[in-house]
Amino acid sequence: MIAAIRYQPFDDRTFLTAVSGLLARLVKEFEPDQVCAIRLSKWFDHKWLGYSGKGRVDFPYGYPHFDTALDEHFQDKVTLPPFNPKQVIAEYHWRKTANGYTRLRQPDLVHRRVLEHSSANLHRRVSSRWPSIVLMWFSSNTASNEHGSVMVYALTRHAQSIWYASFARMGGWRVDRVKGVRKEKVQEWFPLN
User: Fold this and answer.
1) Hey, how many other C-beta atoms are within 10 angstroms of the C-beta on 121?
2) Can you tell me the distance from the alpha carbon of 4 to that of 65, in angstroms, rounded to the nearest whole number?
3) 71 bridge partner residues
4) What are residue 140's phi and psi, to 5 degrees?
5) Which residues pair with 5 in a beta bridge?
6) pLDDT over 90 at 189, yes or no
7) Average pLDDT in the 7-24 region?
8) What share of the chain is helix, strand, coil (3-state, %, to 5)?
9) CB contact at 8 A, 118 and 146
């Protein structure tokens, strides 16, 4: 069974409850072999959706003064977003068993705990490590920020869903921006009121 994500003093309880509910809905819908929820230290933007990192791009021979430049990469095959290790507060992992889902105490971590250039991430494809997984990143510090964000990579043998949503607390939590999913779907999955 996927347990609720533990409350921290800097979390808004309503937002965190909705995050736990969303994770349970995703597991029910996709039935992945593995599940991972990743708590990030702060709000993050939609630019992380599908982002693989920065890599070198060669200029054509004879281009004045430069032979290479850095460019942002978004790969066809989904890679892990290269979040700074200092932003990753915690990872919660579960594995599917005959009796449901069991929490893993010493999992294979999604994010490395060493700082490295994002170009090292360009070929860390999700499907190479986990053929069937739901990964969900969510922001912390929602009590004082009054903003939150969630990003989902649900990749199984039968389906794929990759999306981002941000939330704002203005007299109650509401969906602010979405990418890769309809706003109505997020509101249905993520009941905030």
Assistant:
1) 22
2) 55
3) 55
4) -105, -175
5) none
6) no
7) 92
8) 20, 35, 40
9) no
